[in-house]
Design brief:
Elements (H helix, E strand, L loop, with lengths): L6 H11 L6 E2 H8 L3 H13 L4 E3 L2 E3 L20 H4 L4 H12 L7 E4 L3 H9 L6 E4 L2 H7 L6 E4 L3 E3 L4 E3 L5 H4 L3 E6 L3 E3 L2 E4 L2 H11 L2 E7 L11 E4 L6 E4 L5 H9 L3 E4 L3
Parallel strand pairs: 4-5, 4-9, 5-6, 9-12, 12-14, 14-15
Antiparallel strand pairs: 1-3, 2-3, 7-8, 10-11, 11-13
Amino acid sequence: MSDRMHTEDRHRRILNLLDPEAVVSIDTLTRELRSSPATIRRDLEKLSKLGKLRRVHGGALPPQDADGDASPPARLVGQQAYVASEVLNVKAKRAIGAKALELCKVGEGMIIDGGTTTNTLAQLLPNLPFQVLTTSLPIVLSLIRKTQIRLLLSGGEIFREQNIFLSPYDDTVLQNFTAAKIFIGAQAINSSGLMQSDPLLVQNERRLISRAHEVIALVDSSKFANHATLSSCPLNGIHMLITDEGIPDKAKGMLKRAGVEVVIAPS
């Protein structure tokens, strides 16, 4: 078994997989990180000495607070941790981001929603006078040194696993921002549209969509096989969907019947 993943990356993913309600086992970590049991045990021992987790028989738990209770992080229903998602389908996501870049016009306002696929677009944006509103910490980091880009953030609570900030309340920045386009991802996509499982995430995405003239979905083809329960945008609300060559013919037909322009990004 290969242990190619960098130590810091493994440590970050281990901490994101911790569950305050159950022990995350060495077997689970071995499978998720594709590392050997010996490597995972060494990682757990090191993180335990640093106070980042509690080492228990067979695995690990989150650290305790001053009262001896585990401190549960804010979590979103059905959402994979960002660090786990960013290593999946990397080539396809990069191709989708490059194709989306062709739609960005200098001086135009845009919303780039949180996600690993949408962040590939942010990473590729040149340092030119774009206006970008986002809810994503990784996207902020991708754009912060591009000083010609006007960067706006909506407020809210930080959800560390997904590296996004969401709010149940109206946001004055968002209320006064109008975008030509929103680039948005999804947990899944089916006949009901772009799908998520967390109500707060859906509420925020609907609010973002309402501020944009065009909805452009950036989803790799694996999302057509995923499942989720809540629609953040119906199919007929999507103007364009950019995906990779793996999109099933059935899904392509479904989108075209709904009037969605499908763009295939060759990888």
